[in-house]
Amino acid sequence: MAWEAMTSDDKPAPPPERPPEGPVERAAEKANATATDGQPFGRQGRPFDRRSPFHIGMMAAAGVAVTYGVILLLGAAKDVLILIGLGLFLAIGLDPATNWLVRRGVPRWASVLIIVVATLGLVGGFLSLAIPVVVAQVSQFVHEVPAYLQQATDQNTLVGRLNGRFDLGRVIQELGTGKSEVSLVGGLLGAGEAVAGAAFSTVIVLVLTVYFLADLPRIKATAYRCVPNSRRPRAILIGEDILSKVGRFVLGNLVTSVVAGVLTFVWLVIFNVPYALLLSLFVAFMDLIPVVGSTLGGVVVFLVALSVSFPVALATAVFFVVYRLFEDYVLVPRIMGKAVEVPGVVTLVAVTLGAALLGILGALFAIPVAAALRLILREVAFPRLDTS
Questions:
Q1: Would you state the pLDDT for residue 18?
Q2: How far apart are alpha carbons 174 and 181 in whole angstroms?
Q3: Alpha-carbon distance values, 310 to 273, 306, 317, 318, 374 (Å)
Q4: Which of 1, 71, 181, 308 has the fewest beta carbons under 10 Å from its own?
């Protein structure tokens, strides 16, 4: 029989292999066959057809969705982004002083520590001298409020005539009794919240400034690596010039503000205008706003000087006009030089738009941003347009 002819070494033939049952199984079988040591994941397939209507529609919809999400994210994080931008702005302003120490052999961490300690020491020393005087002047103002109210009812004084025309007494009374939309108690609570928020924001800005100042070389290197290698050298040159302009603007703006506050204090002391230190601090703070800051501070000082006499107020107005000319044509050119290089019209438009968008901080950022945009247009956009 046939089975008797088979030897012990003979084996029955294996049954025929079944083909894969589904598309996934067939794809797995093909994947095992195409994987090699050189290409363990197989060869790449054909790219998607980017000109297909479906691909174009999906990419357009995804672009719109991402753009809308970024806009919502920026709007929700607006306050935090402003603090981050202010910290970076101050760090760039302090970076020239840090680099000056680094060039003289001081390590960067020690340079940052020296700059921060010196800045906090100056600010702390000034506040220790100024706060008692400011508190005394505020107490004096509160004590003299009844006298000012009595003058407001006297039609023979300028304040009384203004009260008669604009009915300022009724507005103050409504604020005190809570009959207006914003009561006095609510205003005081709001002021307390504003002070607490300002103190918290100040601490955050100081911490961010220290960290940005310490890691600014690394931050710049990371930003430059985002530029293609073929264009990176030119981007570094333009970026360093922009940062230099911002740093000089910040330091120059601080110096001009200090000069404005000191000259205002001397003037007010000479003519015995009340609240001299408080008003000079206000003028120095307002002078940080380019173009219009010292003018707005001068208006407030003029109104306070009316309590002394009209000739003193008129002389104060003339003083601020003269100082405005002195700052524009003497201080700014000598202190900042050609660091910013922004025409006057562009400066005015930039400050106006910045103030409308972000208030005082927007007006402060406006000129450096305008200088950066002007440099980019001159060095990048205009040459390409001229040769196109």
A1: 57
A2: 9
A3: 12, 5, 10, 12, 45
A4: 1
